Amino acid sequence: MALFAARDRSVHSRRRRDWQPAFSPQAIRHYEEKVLLHIEELDQQLELKAKSGAVDWYESVDWCQEQIQARLAKGPAPELRDLTYYIMEKEKENNVDAGPWLRGIVCSPSWREALAAVLHELVLHPEHIDKLHAELGDTCLTDTNALAELPHLNAVIQEAMRLHPFLPTGGIRKTTDTGVTIWDVHIPPHTTARIASNRAPPSSQTGGPPRPEMVRNAAAHAPFSLGKYNCIGQHLAMRMMRYTLARVIKKYRFYHPPGVDGSEMEGEKADRFTSFAGPVPLVFELR
């Protein structure tokens, strides 16, 4: 059972504690050096493909997943204190098979879908590519604190996750023995409820500039969920997305190949509890 689906609070708390050391601030700082090495390898792959023409973003992501599978094959190794190390240590302590957990998390499409959504939206609105490139300026691309302070970079990531939620139909919840009343509507006990991730169209589709006065509560945008059941890896995910996007935007120009308008991404998207977007073919050029 997935961690977020454990409705028994004691079970959820116990399993979340198993994951917690892997996402502590100390562990994340330790990962950064390793993450940056993989981003360097991804950059090399993109540069090779940039010299040969169009690229499907997911091809590069598939290469990343091959690297993850190779790491899983090594098993727990004290000299490799990465995410897999912490979970495999728990496997030994609790005598459980952590392989399916790890493959479900580190090979999950969530992070690739988010990055693909950002690139998809940027190609549709190329003026933001130029704005991001200007914002990056002389910023150190490996300084996580500096990247976290760039307002447009972070706004673009958040907007892409709003427009392309990873859980398009929302999370599933079941009411307790007493049910629950939301406003003036009572939902009976033991009823399964699903809340869709409804989204407003971007300002480019409504024909006007952003309208901050329409935002009643910014907390309503919660791509990583809220409370005790929020995404335990959200801080690591944001760092990885900032690092990757900063490197790609700083080094490359990218756009749709001839005859492609970007409609495949939405047109072929499938909702299988999590989102599976269509292809995102792009042409990369070195700046």
Automatic annotation (TrEMBL):
<dbReference type="Pfam" id="PF00067">
    <property type="entry name" value="p450"/>
</dbReference>
<dbReference type="InterPro" id="IPR001128">
    <property type="entry name" value="Cyt_P450"/>
</dbReference>
<keyword id="KW-0408">Iron</keyword>
<dbReference type="InterPro" id="IPR036396">
    <property type="entry name" value="Cyt_P450_sf"/>
</dbReference>
<feature type="region of interest" description="Disordered">
    <location>
        <begin position="193"/>
        <end position="214"/>
    </location>
</feature>
<keyword id="KW-0479">Metal-binding</keyword>
<protein>
    <recommendedName>
        <fullName>Cytochrome P450 E-class, group I</fullName>
    </recommendedName>
</protein>
<keyword id="KW-0560">Oxidoreductase</keyword>
<comment type="similarity">
    <text>Belongs to the cytochrome P450 family.</text>
</comment>
<dbReference type="InterPro" id="IPR050121">
    <property type="entry name" value="Cytochrome_P450_monoxygenase"/>
</dbReference>
<keyword id="KW-0349">Heme</keyword>
<keyword id="KW-0503">Monooxygenase</keyword>
<dbReference type="InterPro" id="IPR002403">
    <property type="entry name" value="Cyt_P450_E_grp-IV"/>
</dbReference>
